[in-house]
Amino acid sequence: MNFLSRCLLLPLACFSGLALAQLTSPIGTPAAPAAGAAADPVVPPHVQGQGAGVHSPLSPFAPLKPREDVVPWSLLTDIKTEVKNKRITPVYTPGVQALNQKMQKVQGFMLPLGPGEQQRHFLLASVPPTCSFCTPGGPESMIEIRTREPVKYSLNAVVVEGKFHVLQNDPYGLYYRMTEAVGVK
Fold it and tell me: Pairing mode, if any, of strands 118-125 and 176-184?
């Protein structure tokens, strides 16, 4: 399992009390529980990742301010999932499908995938992270961003514009990607 996959699954393990090995087993296949853990091999539906994530009331960062010029997270997170070939796959609404391969603006909080002040590849999340080892929500609440020019890392919300991709069968389990992105005000 690669680093990005672990980053996306770790919050589920933390939240549900399951061992990471249990989460990475094929759906419905019993996995050996970690020492002292319950033997529940299936991720409970309430933990599979629905909605925009949890913005901690203790967070020093304000929630995102509504903007008319960006794709709302409420649209991106309004999806269902189904199990196909032992994988959880997204079922997108027509509104989400209409965004595919078009230039869009999105706002969110940066989760860098590499070191440095200037970022060209990062995740954009709907809520700020509260743990440096956990993503703040499920895959419906994050967008993988690849930029043309580096974007300066910020703890505060950023807005980027680029070509939006709705992913059907991403090997990392991501639902959305933006390419050729640039930072905007």
Answer: unpaired
Q: Where do runs of H (alpha helix) occur along the chain?
A: 3-16, 20-23, 73-76, 94-97
Q: What are 160's two structure tokens?
A: 């980027």
Compute the distance between CA of residue 180 and CA of residue 152 in angstroms, rounded to an integer.
Answer: 16
Which of 2, 3, 7 is closest to 142 using CA atoms?
A: 7
Phi, psi of 46, deg, nearest 5:
-70, -10
pTM over 0.90: no
Q: Cβ(141)–Cβ(77) under 8 Å? A: yes
CB-side exposure of 143: number of CA atoms within 13 Å?
Answer: 31
- Above 90 in pLDDT, residue 63? no
List the end-to-end C-alpha distance of the chain, in Å, as a whole number. Answer: 36
